[in-house]
Design goal:
The chain has a domain of 222 residues. Helices cover 47% and strands 15% of the residues. The longest helix has 32 residues. It is globular, with a radius of gyration of 22 Å. With 407 residues, it is α+β, with helices and mostly antiparallel strands. The strands form three sheets. A six-stranded antiparallel beta sheet has the order 5-6-7-8-10-9, sandwiched between helices. A two-stranded antiparallel sheet has the order 1-4. The chain contains 15 helices and ten strands. α5 runs antiparallel to α6, α6 runs parallel beside α13 and α6 packs antiparallel against α14.
Length: 407
């Protein structure tokens, strides 16, 4: 076997290699297992008496609203806000699902940090209070939550990043190409041809000229493209990184542009019936992003690649995901409140004042006397936390047995 084949699999072996990597990532971390099992999450929700959940207004939800899917997102003018940043699962559905998914990820993180159970209770209390306060604030154009330390840190990183930081992380130093190996694998000949044809389409070229005041008639040239081994839940789907040069036709001056192409598949999140939603999965994702995260929604387009629905965006150096790392109990509680307020704004901005007031009233249904959080949220998160831990340990057991047998 050659050195090259040890670095990355052949095209025919790509699917099995990605599946193996996904299983390994999920076995290494309970948080990675949670992120990689959206379908399982909704199976748990369905099995745990969904009738007890409040029936929220029909609006675009993230559908996979865990902590890792939130963070700094830049708009076309490089202005940065903390917003939801992943929309693979977006649908017009029940906003309560986003709250439960966020609560589960925060509670799971608290257990990972070995924080006491009282802290988990306080996390859910502050989460629902922060969400409700932000929904009220949207009606009054108020309600901005203070950023906790971990959020200020990632925002500071985002604001201080430039193209050179992104290039040093993803692109070879000697020439503008993707270094093949652990994170980037070669495309098949047919995929390479498809990439060239894709970036000849006017709508896709316009996306490349959208940012940093590039002229619409700039020349767009594909410099390199590679299969991108990235994420956890998306491992196994088509994911391609493309490096472009966008040049002024008159002066010849050009700059590099990093495009992310991702396959769009059917959402696991349940949608409300009798609502208008695009049938094409890529168009669904674009529309969800436009409603929930305007910074990202304005710089993403839907297209087709090898007869598959894909969505394309330019990756900016300011786009970072929020990582929770060894939080104290107080910081975890503040973070829960702030992130819930971000989700609340994304939801409430889609509603008029009457709908916001009705949803705000529904949120208070079944408040517990011993806990300042609705029983539907507390019970759902705790039951899902137990189911998640059991399922994660079973995944680890099967993974260990499989690899012990292979050895």
């Amino acid at each position: 076997m050659s050195k090259k084949s040890l670095q990355y699999p052949d095209f025919a072996e790509r699917a099995s290699a990605l599946n193996a990597r996904r299983n390994l990532k999920m076995a290494r971390s309970a948080q990675a297992y949670l992120r990689g099992n959206t379908l399982k999450f909704y199976e748990w929700i369905e099995a745990a008496a969904p009738d007890r959940l409040p029936q929220g207004p029909a609006l675009w939800i993230c559908g996979d609203c865990h902590v890792g899917n939130m963070g700094p997102v830049a708009n076309a003018e490089s202005k940065v806000k903390i917003q939801i940043r992943d929309f693979d699962q977006t649908v017009i559905g029940n906003p309560a699902h986003d709250l439960i998914r966020l609560g589960l990820s925060l509670a799971s993180a608290a257990r990972g940090f070995d924080l006491p159970g009282v802290t988990t209770a306080r996390i859910l209390e502050q989460m629902i209070d922060g969400y409700a306060e932000a929904v009220d604030g949207c009606s009054r154009n108020k309600g901005k939550s203070k950023q906790p330390e971990c959020v200020r840190y990632v925002m500071g990183r985002a604001l201080g990043r430039s193209w050179s930081h992104l290039a040093s992380e993803c692109i070879g130093r000697k020439k503008p190409t993707f270094p093949l190996g652990k994170h980037f694998w070669p495309l098949s000949q047919h995929e390479a041809v498809e990439i060239t044809q894709l970036f000849q389409q006017r709508e896709v070229q316009q996306l490349a000229t959208l940012l940093r005041s590039r002229n619409a008639d700039y020349h767009v040239e594909v410099l390199d493209a590679a299969y991108w081994v990235k994420g956890c839940s998306s491992l196994g789907r088509l994911r391609i990184a493309v490096l472009l040069r966008v040049s002024d036709k008159q002066t010849g001056h050009g700059e590099l542009c990093f495009m992310d192409i991702k396959e769009a598949v059917k959402a696991a999140a349940p949608r409300y019936t009798n609502v208008g939603m695009p049938r094409d999965n890529a168009q669904r994702i674009v529309m969800g992003a436009q409603h929930l995260a305007p910074n990202l929604g304005e710089r993403i387009v839907a297209s087709r690649f090898e007869d598959r629905a894909v969505f394309i965006r330019e990756l900016l150096p300011q786009d970072l995901k929020l990582e929770l790392d060894d939080l104290t109990g107080d910081e975890a509680i503040k973070t829960a409140r702030f992130l819930a307020s971000v989700v609340a704004k994304a939801h409430a901005d889609q509603l008029d004042d009457d709908a916001r007031r009705a949803w705000r009233k529904e949120l208070d249904r079944n408040r517990l006397k011993t806990l300042d959080a609705p029983s539907w949220l507390w019970t759902s998160v705790i039951e899902l936390l137990v189911s998640h831990e059991s399922s994660y340990l079973e995944h680890c057991r099967r993974y260990a047995l499989e690899h012990a047998t292979a050895a």
